[in-house]
Amino acid sequence: MRYSGFKVIKEALTGHKGWTPQWRDPEPQSHYDFVIIGGGGHGLATAYYLAKEFGESRIAVLEKGWIGGGNVGRNTTIIRSNYLLDGNEPFYEFSLKLWEGLEQDFNYNAMVSQRGILNLVHTDAQRDAARRRGNAMILNGSDAELLDVEGVRKLYPFLNFDNARFPIKGGLLHRRGGTVRHDAVAWGYARGADMRGVDIIQNCEVTGFKIEDGTCLGVETTRGYIGAGKVGVSVAGSSSRVMEKAGMRLPMESHVLQAFVSEGLKPVLPGVITYGAGHFYCSQSDKGGLVFGGDIDGYNSYAQRGNMPVIEDVAEGGISLIPALGRVRLLRAWGGIMDMSMDGSPIIDKTHIDGLYFNGGWCYGGFKATPAAGWCFAHLLKTDTPHDTATAYRFDRFRTGHMIDEKGQGAQPNLH
Amino acid sequence: MIINHPLLGPRDAQEFTYLGDASLISRPDAQDDNAAEKFHDYLYLRDNPAGLHRELWFHESGDRSWLVVTRNTVTHEITDVQLARDVARKEGRSK
């Protein structure tokens, strides 16, 4: 069923009896050409692009819980293409271009809103770094605009400009960045994939791999054995747990990242702002809640909940940037599990086992990457070669010294 | 989280800095034949278990000792705390 304005009006006049489920609930078949493990944003996007762009149809997505129940529904919904390094920026620019056409592409309202992201600077050195980053972004086809303090004041007059320790000196504005309704991304990809014959199999946990003579032949699941031509793993925070079943140790630690939403307010914050002197960023959802977050808690965790010190730290950062936040009540806080790679950058690569492919290590930046990660992973699964924008995301980069250390903090996941 | 420091008693985890898996104590021998490979594994690869995890915490705002904490990564429950010095000595290290 195609969605359109006409369809909404027609259904409104006929009692909304014509809507059908957005995807099927199929029984797993005994064999697929492609099995994607993980029914999150990345896994569903991978299946969608395998079907739509690469012409495959015998595809299954296996999800241990319900689709979209992991990090795709736990992030702070921001999309952007404001990276610095050559290995990263072309990829994220590709992703942002896909976001821009996504809703028309999969015929689903994902509420893509390019409301602009402003990274604040507080020192001369930060302004230099922002200028350099802005130039790198423009060279890669993205957009960047360096604002002086009056430019920032015009956009956000209520910020704490004259903070004695961290006065606001300006900011780097990325106008094409913004936010997306994150659940709708999972649902849109699921519906689009399902329409093209992909089997989305929920409540189906992978318990092991069948590997013979260095070749992956299929997966053992809680709903029986499923044979596969190729298996793609795209499970974010559970990467180490799943790949351990294939005998692999990953360059990753799983950490918890918390996010927060306030009570609903009238429109106060038109775009996304990030604090340059503390780890704090904030936007306002279409429901009115202020959505914000900060640092990871900094220790290995699979708990999907964090601890108080980071909540306090985020609140301090928020109030020092936006003093008015002190009058706002916090409504909800939650945590998601991040597969923190050793250099803070992802992996989309083949493994040493034939027929087993991996997409992960997205740290806390996986959501904005969803369309391109799906596209590039599908490209890799179909052609056995990396997509042009994802050639740097290799397993062996730690061995060969080609790390993509965007934050310059080395192999210290708790610092990224 | 409360870390029960072997010398100082229960202390808030906020006083500590986290480093990671306690296997970082066991540094490979740089003279080994395949030392480069071993250092790659030592520096970059992790078991990253869901469950009991032995890990290094540094009492930065306290007595500046290193601790080996055994903590459940699913529940955050801490079941054992030792001085990293004692753990390293038990493994035959001089300090």
From TrEMBL, chain A:
Instruction: Name the Enzyme Commission number(s) assigned to this protein.
Output: 1.5.3.24
Q: What is this protein called?
A: Sarcosine oxidase subunit beta
Instruction: Spell out the GO cellular component terms annotated for this protein, sorted alphabetically and separated by semicolons.
Output: cytoplasm
Q: Which family does it belong to?
A: Belongs to the SoxB family.
Annotated localization: Cytoplasm
Molecular-function GO terms, alphabetical: nucleotide binding; sarcosine oxidase activity
Native organism is Halocynthiibacter styelae
Domain Rhodanese residues, every copy: 35-78
Q: Which UniProt keywords apply?
A: Cytoplasm, FAD, Flavoprotein, FMN, Nucleotide-binding, Oxidoreductase
Q: Which cofactor does it need?
A: FMN; FAD
Q: Which Pfam families would you find in this protein's record?
A: DAO
UniProt keyword Hydrolase, yes or no: no
Q: Which reaction does it catalyse?
A: sarcosine + O2 + H2O = formaldehyde + glycine + H2O2; sarcosine + (6S)-5,6,7,8-tetrahydrofolate + O2 = (6R)-5,10-methylene-5,6,7,8-tetrahydrofolate + glycine + H2O2
- PROSITE patterns recorded: RHODANESE_3
What InterPro entries does the annotation carry? FAD-dep_OxRdtase (IPR006076), FAD/NAD-bd_sf (IPR036188), Rhodanese-like_dom (IPR001763), SoxB (IPR006278)
Question: Cross-referenced SUPFAM superfamilies, in alphabetical order?
Answer: FAD/NAD(P)-binding domain
TrEMBL record, chain B:
Report the record's Gene Ontology biological process terms: tetrahydrofolate metabolic process
User: Which InterPro entries does this UniProt record tie to the protein?
Assistant: SoxD, SoxD_sf
The Swiss-Prot or TrEMBL record annotates one GO molecular function as: sarcosine oxidase activity
Q: Which Pfam families match?
A: SoxD (PF04267)
Gene3D superfamilies associated with the record: Folate-binding superfamily (3.30.2270.10)
What is the official name of this protein in its record?
Sarcosine oxidase subunit delta
